[in-house]
Amino acid sequence: MKFEHTTVVDATPEVVFALTQNYSERLTWDPFLRQAVLLNGATEPKVGVRAWCVARLGIGMETEYVSFTPPRIAAVKMTRGPKVLETFGGTWEFTPLDAVRTKVTFRYQLRTRPHWLAWLIEPVARWWFSRETRIRVAALANTLAGRRR
Q1: Domain 2-148 is of which CATH architecture?
Q2: I need a surface site. Which of 44, 75, 99, 126 has the fewest CB within 10 A?
Q3: What 3-state class would DSSP assign to 104?
């Protein structure tokens, strides 16, 4: 199952990318999370670096960066997570619209388990992740708008 949410923010891709990938600032704008840390002594994200993130509800997930191309794309795949998720991946894309505005797209793909219950679990997972993603995208836009003032 795939879904995405997009918004336009008043900041350059460089500014947006830097904010979203700075783990010491992550919790200042991202209402989905209550914990976000890079693992194994990493000090900044890049391909191969793993991160541990815990949602407000207490669900934790370890991810690994599979793409990292500042200031355009950061993508991760789940390496360890809740048993209900068989796979999870996310891409955040930052596209310049003009000198001061950026289109931000958060794109996710997931598969739940057990497969025989996917007809029931995946619509619920899609609704929840989609709702949380809309909130995240709006929070990012609001944080960037507040920084411009």
Answers
A1: 2-Layer Sandwich (3.30)
A2: 99
A3: strand
